[in-house]
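Could someone model zinc ion with this protein?
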Amino acid sequence: MPNKNSRAQHQAIRTCVVCRQRYAQDELMSFFFLDGKLVVDLGRYYQTRKRYLCSATECLNAFPNYRRKLAKKTVSSARKGELQ
Ligand SMILES: [Zn+2]
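Reply:
Sure, complex below.
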């Protein structure tokens, strides 16, 4: 469990797409979809809407299903001109 240190609140908190648990952004792998393809955002280079995945084994195992669902959703929003 995270301790209740008030400094922890300065960290960006993100939600894992699979388990919906909240983690500090630094603990999560970030990724996004570009033309329907999954791109892992290693260098935080892209300024786009990102999703996050934690490192729990069950989340990694379940991820392919979510990936398919998310890719579908993201492609339809990309058609509205969100991406170049
Ligand atoms: Zn997770």
